[in-house]
Amino acid sequence: MARLKKRLTKRTSKKSTNKISGELTEMNCKKCDRLVYNVDSNAISVLCTRCTTLLVGAPKEKIQRVKSNKPRGWAFLAKYIHEDGTVYFRGVEQPKLKDTLKPTDLKKLGEKRKKTSEKNKKIKEERKIKREKQLVKEHKKRASIKEKKRKEKIKMLKG
Ligand SMILES: [Zn+2]
Predict the structure, then answer these.
(1) How many C-beta neighbours within 10 Å does residue 87 have?
(2) Residue 153: its pLDDT value, please?
(3) Are 30 and 48 in contact (CB under 8 A)?
(4) What is the residue extent of each domain of the chain?
(5) Ligand 1 centre from 138 Cα, in Å?
(6) Half-sphere exposure of 59 (CA within 13 A, CB side)
(7) Global pTM?
(8) What are the Cα distances from residue 128, in Å, to 63, 117, 136, 155?
């Protein structure tokens, strides 16, 4: 009986590996919606290389290499043109557009980012202050309602 079971599992596992038909298709990443190429046509969902790397944790070597020749967060830019003329849209290389656009001005990019981050910081602080004010206001309101109710109760008890 046990033997038969063993044989059966062996057979089914073999069948499942046979499922990979070799037919390849394209599919959107289930996490970030990026188009992934060379996906087996039997695949239900796919995780792109970037999401897989994020999940697994990128190898240290690779990070260092990326750091040295591309600006931080380049893959998140809508359009990034590397100094060798390679065009990327949100981290995806566009081979057809190579050398058709001017390389991204990294100095300008840095300045722009600095400005944006300063602006965001300011907005954040303003929001915080606003929220604190609102909280104080709400607290006072609640306290006054409580006080009013308390007075009414006393009045009722007395009356
Ligand atoms: Zn993804």
Answers:
(1) 20
(2) 92
(3) no
(4) 16-57, 69-104, 105-159
(5) 43
(6) 4
(7) 0.37
(8) 35, 16, 12, 40
